[in-house]
Amino acid sequence: MPTAAKLRALLKAMEEDLGFTDWPEHSKDIYYALQLLSEDGQHASLAELKKHKLTAEIAYPTLFRGLQKLIEEGKIRRVGTARSGLYEVVGDSSSE
Questions:
Q1: Among residues of the chain, what percentage have pLDDT more than 90?
Q2: CA-CA distance, 13 to 32, in Å (whole number)?
Q3: Mean pLDDT within 4-28
Q4: Is pLDDT above 50 for 55?
């Protein structure tokens, strides 16, 4: 099996384990981008999220809906003030 196919199969299995199978692709990309942006313990800003290569092509309305869905599901949370637009992953699943 080619390497790219193996990586895709591994990702699919991981997403199944984490319960992400019913998520739209843009929600997965938002979640993964937030994880990558906050690897150093920092909160990710909306501006950073919009510039990230996984989420740069997502329209703002879709980005906001995806963020709201992830917040409602308890996967991420908004931190700071109402105007700060900072987000963090809750219970970072990347270490599981």
A1: 67
A2: 15
A3: 90
A4: yes
What confidence score (pLDDT) does residue 65 get?
A: 94
Range list of β-strands (E), 5-92 = 44-45, 76-79, 86-89
Chain centre to alpha carbon of residue 58: 12
Q: Could you tell me if 76 and 70 are in contact, meaning their C-beta atoms sit under 8 angstroms apart?
A: yes
| Radius of gyration (C-alpha) of the chain in whole angstroms | 14
Q: What CA–CA distance (Å, rounded) separates 56 from 80?
A: 23
- Report yes or no: 33 and 77 within 8 Å, Cβ to Cβ: no
Backbone dihedral region of 38: left (phi > 0), alpha (psi from -120 to 50 degrees) or beta?
Answer: alpha
φ and ψ at residue 49, rounded to 5 degrees = -60, -45
